[in-house]
Amino acid sequence: MGKLDGRVVVVTGAARGQGEQEARLFRAEGAEVLVADVLDEQGEALAREIGARYVHLDVGEETDWRAAARTAKETYGRVDGLVNNAGILRFNSLVDTPLEEFMQVVRVNQVGCFLGIKTMAPVMEDGGTIVNTASYTAVTGMAAVGTYAATKHAILGLTRVAALELADRRIRVNAMCPGAIDTAMSNPAQLDPEADAEETSRALDELYRKLVPLGRIGRPDEVARLALFLTSDDSSYITGQPFVIDGGWLAGVSII
């Protein structure tokens, strides 16, 4: 028996990184998974491999969300869960950030999360779950990622309001707040076939050894396991909450 037997879950940004690991784990735990992304080749390959269905989804486009909801209902007959995983990151100081760049990040991270809730909640079965991917930067500040942090703070607000508004249908809404995780967002070498991504991962471990109490960067499968917890009945009495998964980074800095 899997923890998600009989459930149908939509995962956005599922072609790689955290979303890929979530899709893989959810399938292994018995869920039917709708793999959603704009990376069609990678997404379709993953869906074939794990026995899922792929759909092209630009999370900033409401028409794409409606099409994804229709696909889920037509393919599986129901929707029980959503993981709003898709997101982008841009580095810039606030005063040097062009408005176009700010709005690009808002469109994917913040609007994408909003549209996911707005579109999927009405078609979701009572007792469903929504997991929003926020960030360590949703609960603290970090220089050079102000736009990203602003959108992730907004996701916590959306999470809390949605938890209140959907509680009468027993739809639980929670947020994950990952710290540095070894995905293409933190490790661009993963996108370069000529680069040594494993060597870069080791370098990142060395960097975060000095910053993070647990002494390393996080792994995407660790975030996937938190998403599983928040999607399964293991978290049946939890809603409206942020869950920080950062190796202790937020706890503070040790000078010893």
Number of folding domains? 1
The residue fraction in helices comes out at 40-55%
What is the rounded distance between the termini? 46 Å
Q: What portion of the residues fall into strands of 2 or more residues?
A: 5-15%
CATH C-level: Alpha Beta
Per CATH, what is the topology?
A: Rossmann fold
Radius of gyration: 18 Å
CATH superfamily: NAD(P)-binding Rossmann-like Domain
Instruction: Give start-end ranges of low-pLDDT stretches.
Output: none
SSE run: EHEHEHEHEHEHHE
The biggest beta sheet is recorded as: 7 strands, parallel
Sheet with most strands: strand arrangement = 3-2-1-4-5-6-7
Average pLDDT confidence is 95
Q: Please state the structural category.
A: alpha/beta
Brief overview:
The chain has helices at residues 17-28, 40-50, 62-76, 99-120, 146-166, 197-209, 220-231; strands at residues 8-12, 32-37, 53-56, 81-84, 129-133, 172-178, 242-245. It is an alpha/beta fold. The longest helix has 22 residues, at 99-120.
